[in-house]
Specification:
The protein has 387 residues and is α+β, with helices and mostly antiparallel strands. It has 3 domains: 130 residues, Immunoglobulin-like (Sandwich); 120 residues, 60s Ribosomal Protein L30, Chain: A (2-Layer Sandwich); 90 residues, no CATH class. 28% of the residues lie in helices and 32% in strands. It is built from 10 helices and 16 strands. The strands form 4 sheets. It has a 6-stranded mixed sheet with strand order 9-10-16-11-14-15, with helices on both faces. Strand 7 and strand 8 form a beta hairpin. Helix 2 crosses helix 9. GO terms for molecular function: ligase activity. This is F420-0:Gamma-glutamyl ligase.
């Protein structure tokens, strides 16, 4: 009997020890080395040569571990109206570590990012060729290897840099609607380098007058906030892999990665109970849309891959953060009523947020035919002039 009790006690201790180790392991963050795009500038803008320089950062957000970066490289994709085959691209990476000088030969030596610290590196991209002025944007992928307690993991940071800029003084034509005139306003390809207020000031304000309303697409606003994720960085869990099959094929939640982004935003339990509640409403009351009501606004605003213009068609774009603060800031800075909207070609207009001066009924009617377009028009702003 004593032997049995002894074996049981040892087994219990082993189980408790194993559970303790597992609990501690699950609390560990792994290799949480984050990429921040930083500031990018066009240093040279000649007829046959562009030079783009950026200074991204690597930030160690791992609570109690140092993370090593043994490898770091960058590759580029050029987007333009013409062929890019005649263009030559050279990429130079120079470490700017706070405690170690860069090598003259350009070699990236393994570097340790210490606890809660960060490091920078300079990326210089020279584009040379006769068709350089046809380029619309530059997509930079920074590939870096993290090495630490979590193992050896490759990661990629993404940066989009606009290279073509419409003349803000050029006034697009107005279009008539029953209650207002509308002007779709072209801009450059919006990126993390932009802010909604400055974009409105630059492109819409020259054509506006008192009483006008400026509307911004919710997806471009989210892009300016950096709220986009490449599917390779999304790890679909048990819930997302199973529930995604129950959404319509046209839904941005109909893929495991698309739905997982919502899980990451609002939590698995809210998604699960929204699914249960939405199913019950549909079965018992014959009413759809219950899931989106229960899961929150972000469920409707996520755009999956192919949901927007290149190169963001390769990413999952989330809904904007704090949209009310953004429209209030635009109204204060420009004097224009402002609204962030979600509009499609099916005559569906959702006003995500609107400043106090906005007549929501007028905006809804003015945008019913989606003057901004759903293709690559690149007119994320629409100026509305009530009649």
């Amino acid at each position: 009997m004593i032997f049995v009790w002894l074996v049981g006690a040892i087994a219990l201790l082993v189980l408790v020890g194993w559970l303790g180790l597992e609990w501690q392991y699950r609390r560990r963050a792994g290799n949480r080395l984050a990429f921040a795009a930083g500031q990018w500038n066009i240093e040279a803008y000649a007829a046959d040569h562009y030079q783009i320089v950026g200074v991204p950062e690597l930030i160690n957000r791992t609570p109690a571990s140092e993370i090593m970066v043994p490898e770091l490289t960058a590759e580029t994709t050029l987007l333009g109206k013409e062929t890019v085959d005649n263009l030559d691209v050279k990429v130079t990476i120079t470490p700017q570590h706070p405690d170690a000088e860069a090598r003259a030969d350009g070699y990236w030596f393994a570097y340790i990012v210490k606890l809660q610290k960060r490091t920078q590196f300079k990326v210089q991209i020279d584009i040379t060729g006769p068709e350089v002025r046809s380029l619309k944007a530059l997509w930079v992928r920074v590939h870096y290897l993290t090495y630490g307690p979590g193992g050896r993991f490759p990661k990629t940071g993404h940066v989009i840099v606009p290279l073509q800029f419409p003349d803000p003084a050029m006034a697009p034509p107005w279009r008539d609607t029953p209650q207002a005139q509308v002007m779709p306003v072209p801009t450059h390809l919006l990126t993390h380098l932009d802010t909604p207020t400055e974009v409105v000031k630059r492109y819409a304000s020259p054509h506006a007058q008192p009483g006008d309303i400026i509307t911004l697409g919710e997806t471009p606003v989210a892009i300016m906030q950096g709220r986009w994720r490449h599917p390779s960085t999304v790890q679909p869990g048990w819930l997302a892999r199973r529930l995604c099959y129950y959404f319509l094929p046209t839904s941005s939640l109909a893929t495991a990665c698309g739905l997982q982004t919502l899980v990451d935003l609002v939590g698995p339990w809210r998604v699960f109970w929204a699914f249960i509640g939405g199913t019950a409403k549909k079965v018992l009351l014959r009413q759809g849309g219950g899931f989106y009501q229960l899961a929150g606004d972000q469920a409707r605003l996520i755009d999956d891959v192919t949901g927007t213009l290149p190169p963001y068609d390769q990413f999952i774009v989330l809904g904007p953060e704090s949209p009310q603060l953004i429209v209030d800031e635009i109204e204060k800075a420009t004097g224009l009523g402002a609204a962030i909207v979600d509009v499609n070609d099916l005559k569906a207009v959702k006003i995500v947020a609107a400043s106090p001066r906005v007549n929501r009924a007028v905006v809804t009617q003015a945008l019913i035919d989606n003057p901004a377009g759903n293709a690559d028009e690149q007119t994320p702003l629409v100026l509305v002039r009530p009649k």
